[in-house]
Write a structure and sequence with these properties.
About 30% of the residues lie in helices and about 25% in strands. It is α/β, with parallel strands linked by helices and about 500 residues long. It folds into three domains: about 230 residues, Rossmann fold, CATH 3.40.50.300; about 180 residues, 3-Layer(aba) Sandwich (Rossmann fold), CATH 3.40.50.300; about 70 residues, no CATH class. The termini are far apart.
Amino acid sequence: MQLALRDITKRFGALVANDRISLTVEPGEIHCLLGENGAGKSTLMNVLYGLYTADEGEIVLDGVTQSFDGPGDAIAAGIGMVHQHFMLVPVFTVAENLMLGNETTGLGGTLDVDAARERVREISARFGFDIDPDAVVEDLPVGAQQRVEIIKALSRDAQVLVFDEPTAVLTPRETDELMGIMRQLREAGTAIVFITHKLREVREVADRITVIRLGKVVGEAEPTASNAELASLMVGRPVELTVQKQPPTLGDDALVVDGLTVTDVTGLVHVNDVSFTVRAGEIMAVAGVQGNGQTELTEAIVGLQDHVRGSILLDGRELVGRSVRQVLDAGVGFVPEDRQVDGLVGSFSIAENLMLDRSFSGPFTSRFGGLRRAVRDAFAREKLAEYDVRAPGIETRAGNLSGGNQQKVVVARELSRDLRLLVAAQPTRGVDVGSIEFIHHQIVATRDAGIPVLVVSTELDEVVALADRIMVLYRGRIVGIVPADTPRDVLGLMMTGERPAGAVA
């Protein structure tokens, strides 16, 4: 099925999110839609999927102009969408999620779950997904949940499939697997729209590339274009794609973790007798495949884990046993790996989110306990400008921002604290190249100010770029702590549990 979008315009008040955008996607083609956070990519696809109605323009499928009153109409026309934040019911099984909005019944009007199970097995076998139809979604890893989203779309015979930032929450291995799935779908004749801002992925799978900036198409490019050329088209200026930093000026041991063990309520060990030190003015980057204890490690430092043994000293003061508020008050800034669950309150405004955890004291509160709204709003406007958060204003709900702009709000809040330690988990997840450049610069500036930094990332490029030393975790244990110039193939082996000669345990 051929998809043509012609002069699509979508406004939100005075904001023109899409300004006369036109593009064509052929059957059996991967058409990449590349652009910064807030450029209008997701808005355009939400128009295609029937979630929004265009103010102007038309959607044409195989030469026939369409009119969608909602996603049901788009699905019936052969359009499927895999959203950046999955549209799944966590407590339902895979088969039950497949049936949502497309319920079939058997004898007596009962739901025909067996038919849904069989459909899951059929599609899983065709693409090698290995998905159990009776598995509960919340028990599946993120990569498997994404396959469930793809199965949902394919079960409804989608001939045009939209992937909206599909790799934002995936590990490198899961990303490679997804690239393989997309190629299979292309070979089967599916027209694919791939929304991303990750240049490596674009060059790896795209047949054609359309670049959007500030709601407008600013150019097309071939997959052979260099990263620098693509980045410049996206941002409208040259972008520094490598992290520029001087050798660190190291101070005393600032963060000292000794014998740290973290278990869950069932007694399962997630962090197993981990010990390491981060000095003032140093970036320690933690590498590893997602799910090897990184989340529990960072949450233990911040006070979010209940079952913790061992010691975490910051400037000689014990953090274990303290509440989250006490840890934050001790000068710890925390960028969580899941901005929607732990980083933001989606129903709060940007201004309210930027003062979270500080509303009870400090510059935003008067001596009588009331909110100093003018101070809060001035601070919010300053951070919106400084971090280039694309939003109509500071009263915009955080939940209405694109994923990358949500991340920038979290980073802006945490880096504006009076820091003694920065813990950043996946700091640039879902963020475009221009914003990555800025956030990396801010992290290095934090280190250069003499503050210890602990960065956790599944992006090996990010780990290597930022680190002064690299700690690799595997199944909750430290495989080794190695210099930042350690070859990538050695780091890759360490991520599978192998310890190279010379690595510090």
